TrEMBL record:
<feature type="transmembrane region" description="Helical">
    <location>
        <begin position="240"/>
        <end position="259"/>
    </location>
</feature>
<dbReference type="InterPro" id="IPR036259">
    <property type="entry name" value="MFS_trans_sf"/>
</dbReference>
<keyword id="KW-0813">Transport</keyword>
<feature type="transmembrane region" description="Helical">
    <location>
        <begin position="306"/>
        <end position="327"/>
    </location>
</feature>
<keyword id="KW-1003">Cell membrane</keyword>
<feature type="transmembrane region" description="Helical">
    <location>
        <begin position="104"/>
        <end position="122"/>
    </location>
</feature>
<comment type="similarity">
    <text>Belongs to the major facilitator superfamily. Bcr/CmlA family.</text>
</comment>
<feature type="region of interest" description="Disordered">
    <location>
        <begin position="420"/>
        <end position="440"/>
    </location>
</feature>
<keyword id="KW-1133">Transmembrane helix</keyword>
<protein>
    <submittedName>
        <fullName>Multidrug effflux MFS transporter</fullName>
    </submittedName>
</protein>
<feature type="transmembrane region" description="Helical">
    <location>
        <begin position="75"/>
        <end position="92"/>
    </location>
</feature>
<feature type="domain" description="Major facilitator superfamily (MFS) profile">
    <location>
        <begin position="37"/>
        <end position="419"/>
    </location>
</feature>
<feature type="transmembrane region" description="Helical">
    <location>
        <begin position="161"/>
        <end position="179"/>
    </location>
</feature>
<feature type="transmembrane region" description="Helical">
    <location>
        <begin position="191"/>
        <end position="211"/>
    </location>
</feature>
<feature type="compositionally biased region" description="Basic and acidic residues">
    <location>
        <begin position="420"/>
        <end position="430"/>
    </location>
</feature>
<feature type="transmembrane region" description="Helical">
    <location>
        <begin position="279"/>
        <end position="299"/>
    </location>
</feature>
<dbReference type="InterPro" id="IPR011701">
    <property type="entry name" value="MFS"/>
</dbReference>
């Protein structure tokens, strides 16, 4: 694989702890620093779901105020996701070249400004354009947080850390719709974007004060744009990396179909109020977080690939139940458990697939590799979002079909593209998530 590597670092092939816990203990408490790092990085990775989920209960009201339809309103979600994808493609390689801190702080400052502009959008077309900018600037937090984890952890330890981050990240989809529904009692929907601007300011200050540089100059990439393009090509040519990236993207596509379609399906078709919808959405997000923590506890005891398969099986089963509930008229009591199964499965899929992908050759270009994972994830998610409303707001069939199909596709990709070679030389990413020994 023709990946352009940075100057050779002095590091072990498999890292299971932080870079130097003893040194951190001597300077003021390694465990305290680790908990603070979890809080900040988890909050950074929550920018995406927070930007999307806070105003989900407001989508019907937004459509009315801007005199537009459900599909056009859902495009404001797609626009944000498209921005998140494009922004990661820029911020990830930049962080490999410039270090992690500078691109992170610049992105967070721009996110706060873009969110404030969204609050003043006079038309749905303007809001769509600004949402692209908001997503692109917020993407720096997501991609660089993943790269920082990969700077410090690898293999099973990385899977556990990603699972731990979901304790913080998972609070966004749990609390955001509930908070959004309650805030709508006090303010119109533009006020929600002003709240997001305040969140951006808080994250900027947190990163400024609490995130140190984790990529020293000796390990930074060189070569400019051409080297970045070659790196992306090399990563895409790695069958294992590409397989896990597609698994993440397709499973997130199923999740995002649920995210974009459920406000209309559960409120307009099944009659849930914005507040009740927020509670239901939060319960489903709690399932994601709980599954991630179970997976984190089992990592090291159970193969990461097996944990990934469990998550994909849950999502596929949930999609099948959802289809059956919609076509048989089982009502909200059939739909809600099916959606809970789909979202809980994601808690096993995302941490383990990410840890498996960010090993091997990808470990030496973590920023670019993380960016390509993010681009795949959010590009497929954004493409799937409008499918939920393609037949209008009066039917749940498109949402159910899309979720079921994407879950099946993710399972098929994992089973075929990431299976072990037949020559007996199994890639270590297949079983534990550990990187194979570096040559020489």
């Amino acid at each position: 694989m023709a990946i352009v590597r940075p100057r050779p670092p002095e590091r072990k092939a498999i890292m299971t702890q932080t870079a130097d816990p003893a040194a951190e203990t001597a300077t003021g408490g390694w465990m305290d620093r680790r908990l603070w790092l979890i809080l900040i990085l988890g909050s950074l990775t929550a920018i995406g779901p927070l930007s999307i989920d806070l105003y989900l209960p407001a989508l019907p009201a937004l459509a009315g105020d801007l005199s537009t339809g459900a599909m056009q309103t859902q495009l404001t979600l797609t626009a944000c996701v498209a921005g998140l994808a494009a922004g990661q493609a820029v911020a990830g390689p930049l962080s490999d070249t410039l270090g992690r801190r500078r691109p992170l702080l610049a992105g967070l400052a721009a996110y706060a400004a873009a969110s404030l502009l969204c609050a003043a959008a006079p038309t749905v077309e303007t809001l769509i354009a600004l949402r692209v900018v908001q997503g692109a600037t917020g993407a720096a937090g997501i991609v660089i947080a993943r790269a920082i984890v990969r700077d410090l952890y690898q293999g099973v330890a990385a899977a556990r850390f990603f699972s731990t981050l979901m304790l913080v990240t998972g609070l966004a989809p749990i609390l955001a719709p509930v908070a959004g529904g309650q805030l709508l009692r006090l303010m119109p929907w533009p006020g929600l974007f002003a709240v997001l601007s305040g969140v951006g300011v808080a994250l900027f200050l947190g990163a400024l004060l609490g995130v140190k540089e984790t990529l020293p100059p000796a390990r930074r990439a060189t070569g400019g744009l051409r080297a970045t393009v070659r790196t992306f090509r090399g990563l895409a040519a790695d069958r294992m990396f590409a397989g896990y990236a597609l698994t993440i993207g397709l499973s997130f596509g199923a999740m995002f179909t649920y995210i974009s379609g459920s406000p209309f399906v559960l409120q307009d078709i099944y009659g849930l109020s914005p507040q009740t919808f927020g509670i239901a959405f939060g319960v489903n997000a709690l399932g994601t977080v709980t599954a991630a923590q179970i997976g984190g506890r089992l990592a090291g005891l159970v193969r990461l690939r097996l944990l990934l398969a469990v998550g994909l099986g849950m999502m596929t089963a949930g999609g099948a139940v959802l289809l059956a509930s919609v076509f048989t008229g089982a009502g909200v009591y059939g739909v809600l458990p099916a959606l809970f199964l789909v979202t809980s499965g994601q808690g096993f899929v995302l941490p383990n697939a990410t840890a498996l992908a960010l090993t091997g050759p990808a470990s030496e270009v973590a920023g670019s590799a993380s960016a390509l994972l993010g681009v795949t994830q959010f590009a497929l998610g954004g493409a799937a979002a409008p499918l939920a409303g393609i037949a209008g707001p009066d039917t749940a069939v498109p949402m159910a079909v899309s979720i079921a199909a994407l879950a099946v596709l993710a399972s098929l990709v994992t089973a075929t593209a990431t299976r072990a070679p037949r020559d007996g030389g199994a890639d270590a990413r297949q079983d534990t998530g550990a990187a194979p020994p570096s040559p020489g």
